[in-house]
Amino acid sequence: MIDIHSHILPFMDDGAADVDAALAMAQDAHNDGITTVVATPHHANGVYMNPAPDIEAAVRLLNEKLQEAGNPLQVLPGQEIRIYGDLLDDLEKGQLLTLAGSRYILLEMPSSRVPRNMEEVCHELIIQGYVPVIAHPERNAEVAENPTKLERLTELGALGQLTAQSLAGTFGSKLQKVSLDLCRRGTIQVIASDAHDSSNRPFGLSEAYEVVKKQLGNETFDFFLHNSRRIVANEEIIRVNPVQSGSKLHRLFGFFSRKG
Ligand SMILES: [Fe+2]
What we know:
Layout: E1 2-6, H1 19-31, E2 36-39, E3 42-43, H2 52-69, E4 74-77, E5 80-82, H3 87-92, E6 104-108, H4 118-127, E7 131-135, H5 141-145, H6 148-156, E8 159-163, H7 164-168, H8 173-184, E9 190-192, H9 205-216, H10 218-232, H11 242-259
Parallel strand pairs: 1-2, 2-4, 3-5, 5-6, 6-7, 7-8, 8-9
The structure holds fe (ii) ion.
Fe (ii) ion (FE2) binds near residues 5, 7, 80, 135 and 194.
Protein name: Tyrosine-protein phosphatase
Pfam families: CpsB_CapC
Family: Belongs to the metallo-dependent hydrolases superfamily. CpsB/CapC family.
């Protein structure tokens, strides 16, 4: 499995506190069946600033430590970028990181609302050839209340990235319900851990994928799994979630049977 969103780099943000903590997280990731992790420290979220060169240096160092420790996990550079005023300018100046150097860029909204300029920012990024990946939309109060807010962004070409623990039910049944609903609406294209540590916010991807298989079916499981791989490989992802196309067909047949 490939994980496109994690806070595994030490000394960066509220993720791994030091090198030992990062190595322990890496061991958890390996044990969970993860082969590649994109490190995405918070950037410009009002608390943490993590410039691209610092992240790249920390990724190099962690990969060296992993080799020394005999852990085959591969760590790639990324950034979880809060929507902020100079985002587009800074991206143009080459100061921001996409996911593993791909066209996919991980964006974070505030938890309480969808920023007023969100559609504009996504639209501008898409025009420039980027694909915005919206981190954990299920944890945004406005999206949870009104999923069409996310639908508008995915219709523009953005992707929704669900957090594994939200789907697994670790954050409570309400958040799990919102997560499954967003999947069924076709607004989620990828799942990631957003791991911060080994205890409270671990990787747990395999557990989330079990829920996907059980609740949404094997086709959706494959869809999520392959999309993570395609993002890291900078390939075009598949946008239509099989569970969505299934439900559309279901609605269509429901319509005909009602007519009949
Ligand atoms: Fe995160």
